[in-house]
Amino acid sequence: MVKIALAGNPNCGKTMLFNALTGSNQYVGNWAGVTVEAKEGRMKGETDVVIADLPGIYSLSPYTPEEVVARNYLVNEEPDVILNIIDGTNLERNLYLTTQLCEIGIPVIMAINMIDIVRRNGDIINPEEISEHFGCVCFEISALKGTGVKKCAKKAVELARYNKGVPPVHHSFDDRVESALHFISALLPTGTDMLHKRYYATKIFERDKLISSDFDDCESIIKDVEKYYDDDSESIIADQRYKYITSCIDECRTKSGKTPVSEKIDSIVTNKYLSLPIFALIMFGVYYLSVTTLGGALSEFITQNLFGANGLASAAEGFLNSVNCAPWLTSLVADGIIAGVGSVLSFVPQIIVLFIFLSFLEDCGYMSRIAFIMDKLFRKFGLSGKSFIPILVGTGCGVPGIMSSRTIENVNERRMTIITTTFIPCGAKLPVIALIASALFGGAWWVAPSAYFLGIAAIISSGIILKKTKLFSGDVSPFVMELPSYHMPTFKSVARATWDRSWSYVKKAGTIILIASCGVWFLSNFGFYGGKFGMVQRMDNSILAYIGGAIDIVFAPLGFGSWQAAVATLLGLIAKEEIVGVFGVLYSNIGEGFNALSGYSFLVFNLLCAPCVAAMGAIRREMNSFKWTAFAISYQCIFAYCISLALYQTVLFISTGRITVQTVCAAAVIMMFIFMLFRKPVKRIK
Ligand code: GDP
Ligand code: MG
Predict the structure, then answer these.
(1) Which residue, judged by its Cα, is nearest atom 28 of ligand 1?
(2) Per-residue pLDDT tens digits for 451-478
(3) HSE on the CB side for 279, CA within 13 Å?
(4) Is the minimum distance from the CB of 113 to ligand 1 under 6 angstroms?
């Protein structure tokens, strides 16, 4: 068994190559920090070769948790070869890591990726020259287009099999540093792995906190060198590495001098005045097209022909009746399963269209610009743009969104991001939005996009409010967002990402939603009536009505105090699309239970309140504390309640002119909200 580790800077294409080599399907995102854990997979066609996809790293001096994961893997798991993926459009920065990888003592092979973009820009890279300078084989590849991948992988396997323990050549620092490293190596305790000697010596020289060295001799050697250069040891090393790279890079690469296409696009898209309007327009288009026009039409077609009144349900009913099936079973199939699962499935076209757009925007590189643009906006409120990446991921599903908050080092910012990430409507909330938009607003153009912008507004205002409290005050950490070059996503990558996400939606419909629909059918058809337990004629007498009726009063001030709405909200915690499933079973038309205003208020509450159990589980894992999880979920619920209340009561007041106790409460909430937004921040008590 041999092991190949993929190492490189964030967003250089490691996961894409990993997927190509192993045939697996890990999430490829066009921004840093997507892969947060090491993932292993077997190479296609080579049963004895394991490939490990690692989180991106800039150097072997880790600052972030995922950098520690990658470094520990490289040093402790002893891969047989390191396949160093290098973003060809950014050689200088990527080679900085290469100089360090070569010091670990494990054979290194270099793959200059994104060669398609390099060539498009008219630049020329000379792999032989790079090979010469860095002392390891170097290939040009494009993980996206598949260029050179096979050849490179073959060489990696060959090295892993036959070059065990042959360390690569590494570059040398100047004599002073080299002799210091030499001394330190000699002082290393005898047990030290011979293979990693140079690596440890360098780390000790840099005074790496994660590597303990408690010999004073080392310290005096380091101090001498530092005194000579009048600089700290870590900077001396970094400086010499960069000097070395700059000294040889001109021989390795010829620049064309053209302005890359990406820069031209960015001059418009990230323009000071145009960036936000363009972003708003694009996201508006995405939601409008996927919910209202294109996706909506497809969904309607399915509903009418498959799950609607004259479709599958009546066909099944007719069939089951004709074979003299028990009435309760017929009802379970037609009114329970087909109505519940069917209404969830009828939104599949909308989900697919949404995911096609999102995958495209992400893959081509536009979404990373959003984080960059948002950083400028967020900074005005004391927030970091780094929080926006989890939110972008969360547009697909909240669980990976919450997980990607792990890349945020600052603990306050991380917690705040975890709390707010699920405000953005995920794929599972889309059916709820679409249902309300079409059934209660006649497919009005603004309803679906408004849900997205409501999410963003909720995130920004929560950010401001939380930041001003004692719990979250503090400075904003700097955020360096790298902008990847734009590229045309391949059909395959968009199709794959869309398929993955849509399929998991369908799978949920076939499992959780199916079970829940049966449960809802049972609970809404059975109950105690006339002193006996059994099937009830009217749903209002069912167990479900009883359960919902016990809590529906809570939602009355928000305009949807019916037991059905209460049940839907409650079951939405299992999975948000279950809300649609519940309505499918309980109503033949949701207009029976809502008007436009109460429907919108219901939507707002359900978009913002606690997410589904899977996402709550993710919150629990990432917060790693019961107290903080409880805080997050309570905050979300209270926030959702306040916004819904304010909205519903305000519109109600405007339209009827009547003032009730609830109007007064809403006014108080609005005033409180404004106060929290605009008050002076509380200083952190040191
Ligand atoms: P990782 O962070 O290193 O795992 O990078 P990913 O595999 O997630 O890829 C980051 C982005 O780079 C994705 O948008 C990929 O589509 C893109 N990408 C990867 N390889 C290539 C390539 O060879 N050419 C181009 N144009 N894009 C690539
Ligand atoms: Mg990755």
Answers:
(1) 144
(2) 999 999 999 999 999 988 888 887 777 7
(3) 23
(4) yes
